[in-house]
Write a structure and sequence with these properties.
The complex is a heterodimer of chains A (216) and B (173).
Chain A lengths: L2 H32 L3 H5 L2 E8 L4 E3 H12 L5 E13 L4 E15 L5 E17 L2 E19 L49 H15 L1
Parallel strand pairs in A: 1-6
Antiparallel strand pairs in A: 1-2, 3-4, 4-5, 5-6
Chain B lengths: L2 E2 L5 E2 L1 H25 L3 H6 L1 E8 L4 E2 L1 H9 L10 E13 L2 E13 L5 E14 L5 E12 L28
Parallel strand pairs in B: 3-8
Antiparallel strand pairs in B: 1-2, 3-4, 5-6, 6-7, 7-8
The chains are: A alpha+beta (216), B alpha+beta (173).
Chain lengths: 216, 173
């Protein structure tokens, strides 16, 4: 390999490394939202970054605190970010980044049911590399659609009669969620357990019952 | 000869090139989705070789014909909005030929205001020709789930076996 080939390859690698760092920020943002982890969410933005968001327009760090305060107690949030397209200006230490989001916020109702408010659209970001670190310098959310999915709690399944066999298997929020154990996750071992039940019998019976009621 | 970095340890240049090629391919398939979602005809066409073939079930033909077809439906800005969300992407690269299997979910708003969704797989062949840019040479769409009542019989059918189209390879052509 000639020096010219090697330096061209090195350049392509630097581009790839920058893009991977930017994609990591996009995913950390989702984890920050979904685990109610304000510090992690703040760390996605440079100081002074602005976020033009759904019901919040202002400072990114303030957005992090505000959105966790308002949405962080909902029983289920889920952010998917896909389709990242990164227009990288490596020498200018900035990038224009488009990604798609699909988010679910679960709103519990008094009767034990809920509605999932789902929305999707795109994040249009100006990323900047400051002090060697890529973060959001400006975020503009292009909202596309919002809709509702009405839900009903699935019947309890499994021989132990519990929705999850053990509390240690449950998803949660910062700092209790299992993700914060890191490598120590191996120590978060429930007692060994298996059920011989047909896992979906309870579901089938439940749906049959509801349809009979509906038909009557 | 292997390139070396500052400490003098060998670097596998071929493995690095494969990594970079896969990166370019993953951007290519996302650009094609953006082309449809934004009704950007030029962007979508730039993702295909001119002589490419696209089998989208109810349309089978070249990229220009495909765009003309889409402009009457999905790419008519009066319809939708629509968003493609791509997830699992597996690429296999050999020189200037590559194959890819991409999982996609699309969600769109029907005229009555309800949101519908579909699940698909793209089975792709990509080629890098004289201008050094990876483009789609052959694409087939397999519909894993369509909106209720949508006839999928014109589409290539997937199987849950090794006879699935995602296993097909032609490296010599």
């Amino acid at each position: 390999m000639t020096d010219a080939d090697a330096s061209a390859l090195l350049r392509r690698l630097e581009i790839l490394e920058a893009k991977e760092e930017i994609r990591d920020v996009l995913y950390r943002y989702c984890r920050g939202c979904d685990r109610s982890d304000v510090e992690l969410l703040r760390s996605c933005y440079h100081p002074g970054a602005k976020d033009v968001h759904w019901v919040f327009v202002g400072d990114g760090h303030e957005f992090a605190a505000d959105t966790i305060a308002k949405l962080g107690t909902l029983p289920n949030r889920k952010h998917y970010v896909t389709n990242p397209l990164i227009d990288l200006d490596l020498d200018g230490d900035r990038a224009f980044v488009e990604s798609s989001y699909f988010a679910t916020q679960r709103i519990p109702l008094d009767d034990g049911t809920w509605v999932d408010v789902q929305s999707e659209g795109r994040y249009l970001d100006v990323f900047e590399r400051r002090g060697g670190e890529w973060r959001i310098g400006h975020r503009h959310m292009a909202a596309e659609k919002t809709w509702m999915v009405e839900g009903e709690r699935a019947p309890v399944v499994g021989g132990a009669g519990r929705a999850v066999p053990d509390e240690r298997q449950r998803s949660g929020d910062f700092p209790h969620d299992p993700v914060y154990r890191g490598y120590d996750i191996v120590e978060l071992m429930p007692p060994e357990f298996r059920t011989d039940d047909d896992l979906f019998d309870a579901i089938r019976a439940h749906v049959r019952g509801r349809r009979q009621v509906g038909a009557a | 000869m292997a390139a070396t970095h500052e400490q003098g340890a060998p670097v596998d240049a071929a493995a690095l090139r494969e990594l970079l090629d896969k990166q370019e391919l993953s951007e290519l398939v996302v650009r094609a989705s953006r082309g449809i979602d934004r009704c950007d005809e030029e962007l979508l066409l730039s993702c295909y070789h001119e002589d490419a073939f696209d089998d989208h079930g109810t349309f089978k033909g070249d990229p220009k014909g495909f765009v003309a077809y889409l402009k009457r439906r999905t790419m008519d800005p009066a319809n939708g909005p629509l968003q493609h969300s791509l997830s699992n992407a597996l690429f296999e690269v050999r020189g200037d030929i590559a194959y890819g299997e991409i999982y996609g979910e699309s969600r769109w708003v029907e005229p009555d205001g309800t949101v519908q969704r579909g699940l698909c797989r793209y089975i792709d062949r990509y080629e890098r020709r004289d201008d050094g840019v990876w483009r789609i040479a052959h694409r087939r769409v397999i519909l894993e789930a369509a909106r209720p009542g949508f006839d999928t019989s014109d589409f290539v059918q997937g199987t849950r076996s090794r006879s699935d189209p995602s296993y097909e390879r032609e490296w010599d052509r």
